[in-house]
């Protein structure tokens, strides 16, 4: 699951369909997946685009051949859902 979600863009494939995930809307209108064992519902507090000039290890840049750098988010956990089997 992580290999697919971490290496493929949602612009190129339908990740939910490929992985057989079922979206569910929470009471707070967040989306999570019915197949999840644990869900951390968060409130976004801050975001920042990664600046490649700040990489301390220059080899990290190899992970971004298209220079499509991630966005870092800081959030506050407002609710935790745990599936009991």
Descriptive terms for the model:
single chain; 85 residues; mainly beta; two-stranded antiparallel ribbon; 13% helix; 35% strand; globular
Description:
The protein has helices at 2-7, 15-19, and strands spanning 23-25, 31-33, 38-49, 71-82. It is mostly beta strands. The protein has one domain. The chain has a two-stranded antiparallel ribbon. A hairpin with a 5-residue loop joins strand 1 (23-25) and strand 2 (31-33). It starts with a helix and ends with a strand. The mean pLDDT is 90.
Task: Produce a short descriptive summary.
With 85 residues, this protein is mainly beta.
Tally of alpha and pi helices = 2
What class, by secondary structure content? mainly beta
Helix-strand sequence: HHEEEE
Question: Can you give the mean pLDDT?
Answer: 90
Distance between the termini: 21 Å
Largest sheet: 2 strands, antiparallel
Give the topology, please:
Blueprint lengths: L1 H6 L7 H5 L3 E3 L5 E3 L4 E12 L21 E12 L3
Antiparallel strand pairs: 1-2, 3-4
